[in-house]
Design goal:
Blueprint (H helix, E strand, L loop, with lengths): L8 H7 L16 H13 L6 E10 L6 E10 L5 E8 L6 H5 L12 H13 L3 E12 L4 E10 L3 E8 L4 E14 L4 E12 L14 E12 L9 E12 L4 E17 L2 E16 L5 H10 L4 E13 L10 E11 L9 E13 L5 E13 L40 H7 L17 E12 L8 E13 L31 E10 L6 E8 L4 E3 L4 E3 L4 E6 L4
Parallel strand pairs: 3-5
Antiparallel strand pairs: 1-2, 4-5, 6-7, 7-8, 8-9, 9-10, 10-11, 11-12, 12-13, 13-14, 14-15, 15-16, 16-17, 17-18, 18-19, 19-20, 20-23, 21-22
Length: about 550
């Protein structure tokens, strides 16, 4: 390097792709990429008009055979520039301050081109603009000053959404939404969303017909101020009402609530959120639940309850593509504190952590994996209730299209069981019975691995396939975890047989599926083969988990 000026040779070598020992280029035109990388490094250091001229000489190799190419870069850094005036154009509806607050430079600052590029990304990240461009104008090379012109193309602020879908549980799903992303030109957003579905799923293992389905819905209004008082913190308020069928437990859950929170960028790929919430839950027994469950529900006299909580979540996204990742990682951590000084009917602490990983596979396609752990414990006034001190709505569930395929939705783990019935049948407490609802768990573990690969010939139409192997379960208490529970297979035999599948067994499965890529995400059909089926035996029933089990849904499971 000749005349490298303010940048050291070590720093320049860090960006070069062609170094000593590599095959030499055929001619100087092949060094165009290297010249660009060097100039880009100088632009990032505020030297906008740096000139880089490569040259190459070739001599015979006196030690071995062939020739040695000597490459030399002559660099004229020029002057370092500062920012002059800044002009804004294209923002007909949006206030100027919404653009300037995203800019990482101001008049008189050194003109680091990396900050210009990051400012452009931040402008696009507001979702207010379809395009954004920042370019130097009126460049004074003698004074080392460049004015910057910021031009944007605004999006239409109002939008509406309409959608129709189908699924394994929600046989018919209808969605409607309206929103505005730039209220009065301030960048504040509002959204009204309503979703309804006709839910047809097994109720505590009993099949129901289409006309016996349940109407589920969720409606909500969300307001977002992306920059609270010009800071890097957002403000989000949400009010919602919903009805959700939990067939595995024989319940219909009616809820409504409020949430007020904030979010911020903790780093280039790190997002954090914090919120306070109020949830009011009114459970009712499913009309087609077993009579024994209805009687138990009436006996308990379930009441409307309130849960007041503080929540925190952190997201670290290092994926190369958020919609169809082929490399990178995605990590999620959550904390929730309910009750205590905030009041409400329940006091508990809840946490979860998940790591998703993606990488190209040697045989083609993408290898995707996930590990997820979670736990919750009651405290304070809920401590005396033991594991039951955590409300049903806030427990963990596993089984189904997005957790452990090959098993019914949310069916894994312990049941709400009558001990008298177990004693009468001479069963231990870890035996699963027909007609008993899923309890959910206070502890969760999931492990998934999936090989995603395109289909020959059909890939041009957006079709792909996959192979998966995964496992998971939930437990009421940590003492229920057993090393023997992680055996790969177990028999759906006599419930009194110690080798048969028990409630604490980690439930493994494998399978395959088909994907169709659409503008709205992948449509997928999966078939899972459970490796640890259960035989449910009571006085009146003797049934076994089905195999195979089909799942139809939208989006990737992880």
């Amino acid at each position: 390097f000749l005349g490298s000026g303010p940048l050291s040779e070590e720093r320049l070598r860090e960006v070069l792709r062609l170094l000593e020992g590599d095959p030499a280029p055929w001619d100087l035109n092949a060094l165009g990429g290297e010249v660009y990388l060097i100039r880009d490094l100088y632009r990032a250091a505020s030297f906008l008009d740096a000139a880089v001229q490569p040259s190459m000489t070739v001599d015979p190799d006196t030690v071995g055979h062939g020739y040695l190419a000597h490459i030399e870069y002559t660099i004229q850094p020029g002057s370092n520039f500062t920012v002059g005036t800044i002009t804004l154009t294209g923002n007909e509806r949006t206030e100027d301050r919404l653009l300037t607050r995203e800019l990482l430079f101001a008049p008189g600052d050194p003109l680091y081109w990396g900050q210009v590029e990051n400012s452009r990304r931040q402008l696009l990240g507001t979702t207010l603009f379809r395009d954004a461009n920042i370019r130097p104008v009126n460049v004074d090379t003698l004074a080392g000053v460049a004015d910057l012109a910021v031009s944007v193309v605004e999006r239409k602020p109002g939008f509406y959404e309409l959608g129709v879908g189908v699924g394994t549980r929600d046989r018919i799903r209808v969605l409607g939404a309206w929103g505005h992303n730039n209220l009065w030109g301030t960048g504040r957003r509002v959204r009204v969303r309503l979703q309804g579905s006709w839910n047809v799923e097994d109720v505590v293992g009993n099949t129901i017909y289409f006309d016996q389905g349940q109407l589920n819905y969720r409606g909500g209004v969300t307001f977002v101020n992306p920059r609270l008082r010009g800071s890097r913190y957002s403000l989000e308020a949400n009010a919602y009402v919903e009805r959700d069928t939990r067939g595995e437990s024989g319940l219909n859950m009616n809820r409504h609530g409020l949430r007020l929170g904030t979010g911020w960028q903790s780093g280039p790929r790190v997002t954090s959120t914090a919120s306070v919430g109020l949830k009011i839950t009114d459970p009712e027994v499913h009309p087609y639940a077993p009579d024994s469950l209805k009687a138990r529900f009436d006996e308990l006299g379930a009441q409307i309850t309130q849960t007041r909580s503080l929540s925190y979540a952190i997201f670290v996204d290092r994926r190369n593509d958020i919609f169809n990742p082929t490399s990178g990682t995605y990590s999620i951590g959550t904390l929730q504190l309910a009750g205590g000084p905030m009041g409400g009917d329940h006091s508990f602490f809840k946490w979860s952590g998940a790591l998703h990983g993606y990488r190209p596979f040697l045989l083609g396609g993408t290898l995707a994996g996930r590990v997820k752990l979670g736990g919750t414990r009651p405290y304070g006034k809920s401590l005396d209730a033991g594991p039951e001190g955590v409300p049903y709505d806030d427990r963990f569930f596993a089984g189904g299209a997005s957790t452990v395929r090959g098993y019914r939705h949310n069916s894994l783990g312990p049941q709400v069981t009558d001990q008298d019935e177990l004693d009468y049948l001479n069963y231990t407490s870890d035996v699963l019975l027909p007609d008993n609802p899923a309890r959910g768990g206070n502890y969760l573990m999931l492990t998934n691995i999936e090989w995603r690969l395109p289909l020959p010939v059909l890939r041009s139409w957006g079709f792909s396939t996959l192979l998966f192997f995964e496992g998971g379960n939930v437990w009421a208490e940590l003492k229920e975890l057993r090393i023997r529970g992680f055996r790969i297979t177990s028999n759906p035999g006599d419930p009194q047989d110690p080798a048969s599948t028990k409630a604490w067994d980690y439930r493994w499965s494998w399978g395959t599926g088909i994907r169709l890529d659409t503008p709205f995400g992948p449509v997928r059909v999966d078939v899972g083969f459970p490796l640890k089926r259960v035989r449910y035996v009571s006085e009146t029933k003797d049934v076994t988990d089905p195999s195979p089990y089909w799942h139809f849904s939208l989006g990737y499971p992880f």
